[in-house]
Amino acid sequence: MHDVVIVGAGVAGSIVGRLLGRHGFNVRLVDMTPAYTKPCGEVVPTSLIGMLSKARLEHPSVVDKINFFQFYDAGGRLVREVGFNTPVWHSIDKSGWVNNLREGMELARGAVKDLGSIKARIVVDARGPFASRGLKVVVWRGYARTRDFEGRAAIILSRNPFGIAWIFGHGDEANVGGGFLGIGEPRRLSMRLLQRHGVTRVEGDAYSLVTLYPRLSLGQGSVIRVGEAAGFVQSLGGEGIRPAVESAIELARAIVDGGEDILQAYTAATRGLQVEVRLANLLLDLSRALGAKILGYVERGFFDLWLRGRLRESRLTLSRLAVLRGA
Ligand SMILES: Cc1cc2nc3c(=O)[nH]c(=O)nc-3n(C[C@H](O)[C@H](O)[C@H](O)COP(=O)(O)OP(=O)(O)OC[C@H]3O[C@@H](n4cnc5c(N)ncnc54)[C@H](O)[C@@H]3O)c2cc1C
Prior knowledge:
With 327 residues, this protein is an alpha/beta fold. It has helices spanning 11-22, 47-54, 94-102, 187-195, 241-257, 262-269, 271-290, 294-297, 300-307, 318-326; strands at 2-7, 27-31, 43-45, 62-66, 68-73, 78-83, 89-92, 106-109, 120-125, 133-144, 152-158, 163-170, 173-180, 203-215, 219-220, 223-225. The strands form three sheets. Strands 6-5-11-12-13-10-14 form a seven-stranded mixed β-sheet, sandwiched between helices. It has a six-stranded mixed β-sheet with strand order 8-2-1-9-16-15, covered by helices on one side. A hairpin with a 2-residue loop joins β15 and β16. α5 (241-257) runs antiparallel to α6 and α7 (271-290) packs parallel to α10 (318-326). The protein is globular and about 60 Å long. Bound molecules: flavin-adenine dinucleotide (FAD). Flavin-adenine dinucleotide is lined by residues 7-13, 30-33, 36, 38-44, 111-112, 126-130, 139, 141, 177, 208-210, 227-229, 233, 238-242, 244. Residues 7-13, 30-33, 36, 38-44, 111-112, 126-130, 139, 141, 177, 208-210, 227-229, 233, 238-242, 244 line the site of flavin-adenine dinucleotide.
């Protein structure tokens, strides 16, 4: 019998496996795909690199560094520009990195539905949006051959249907995509929005899901959840890589420490992430009500925290936001 079986060898699952393997745990990963190819916008706050170094984990290859952000409405009008002296985001080769993290571990192939039947001391659910609780949105992603967006990100906000399209500098190409509430095939609408910004030809189309309004669910019985499966993803923009890394590091630490109640230790250690998720859920309500106009109201300091993945440090408190939402 394995000490730990991890279902889902994406960002979070691979990291939990890697960290536990280092401490002598007998770990098995199970994934429905032989290689990680999940489509993504592939941008992360630069602070992720420090987080990985501290945990002595492999870094992803950085293909672009982004320090300039432009926000548009669906009509193509520029609503807000925010620039920084140093890069705030890295554009990464996410699949290459996750496949690298998976290397050397026992990886079985299979699509697991019933985690309760797995025989192991600890079972980790790391199936990402396939296992999360919340509203699932279909998101499309492709690549455009252009260097025009090197070092910058263009984010287009659509109010009706509510959602975003993006263009992120990604080395000698741009990572583009979009997702909208209630739209099962987001490519067409995304392309209509992207064309206003000169993106007309896109290759490498792929689709996946992202969880909006995630409901946090960290564990049930002998199963502990991590990453997006636990609800650690930010509704405001769909940022899920850093939360997956952070929650995975905390879960591995709780398991290695081996206290009486692993779930309790993990829940306490991820308190900051939980606050961030709840804040983002409330902010999403505000942006749905106000559309792209919301970007004109918020202070520059907010962008600093949001884009750097430090929303939990914001002076906005959950209770203030709840009052605003009700107003
Ligand atoms: C198109 C798109 C763009 C995105 N852009 C960004 C971005 O730019 N920046 C960012 O931070 N976040 C982005 N996200 C969100 C981010 O991709 C996820 O939140 C993040 O990958 C979550 O990591 P995870 O390890 O929890 O899950 P995942 O990375 O989704 O990994 C889950 C793994 O579980 C496996 N799996 C699923 N079901 C089963 C099953 N039944 N049995 C076995 N294995 C299973 C999958 O094959 C996968 O390998 C984007 C999401 C999408 C869809």
